[in-house]
Amino acid sequence: MKAKFTLKWISLSALLILIGGVTIYRIAQWYYCLPPLTSYLIPGACLTVDEATYKNIDSAEFHAVDTNCDTLAKEEFVEVYAYRNDAHTVLPKWLRKRTVVFVYDPWNSDEALPAISAPQPGHILIAVSRVSSVEMRKSEWNGHQIDYKIGQVEYP
User: Fold this and answer.
1) Using one digit for the tens of pLDDT, what is the confidence trace for 22-44?
2) DSSP character for 16?
3) Which residues constitute the domain of residue 121?
4) Rounded to whole angstroms, how far apart are CA atoms 46 and 32?
5) Domains in the chain: how many in total?
6) 81, 101 in Cβ contact below 8 A?
7) 3-state DSSP helix/strand/coil % of the chain, to nearest 5
8) Contact yes or no for 66/48 (Cβ under 8 A)
9) Residue 150's closest CA among 138, 141, 133?
10) Same domain, residue pair 47 and 1
11) 12 shares a domain with 67
12) Position 132 in a domain
């Protein structure tokens, strides 16, 4: 009887540790914008490339990151990250908090990257000619209003 009790507690403890570990990873993934978990579980399954950097756009810096995963199905998405352009920080760029402001599935790898500009102070314009679908877009970030100019959305 005592062996069953111990085995049950060991199984329950292992399950709670697994759930806690996944929860901690998901929180860290959200805060630090880490790559998908499949890139660690299946080495080589996901390829993440920082495709473009847009500096000094209305006191901000933007990065377009293209992630391409080949697991059971092909998945590609582009994430646009925003950083505060803080020249006085001693933290390296990889340690500063970045915010995802736009995520979309590109229609074609050739047309994947957006154009980012500041037409007027306090406004950011993110333009992309054609996307397959839009996963997420923020309307404001750090006191800036974000406008989008999307030419064509194939699967709204």
Assistant:
1) 777 777 666 666 655 555 555 56
2) H
3) 43-153
4) 18
5) 2
6) yes
7) 25, 45, 30
8) yes
9) 133
10) no
11) no
12) yes
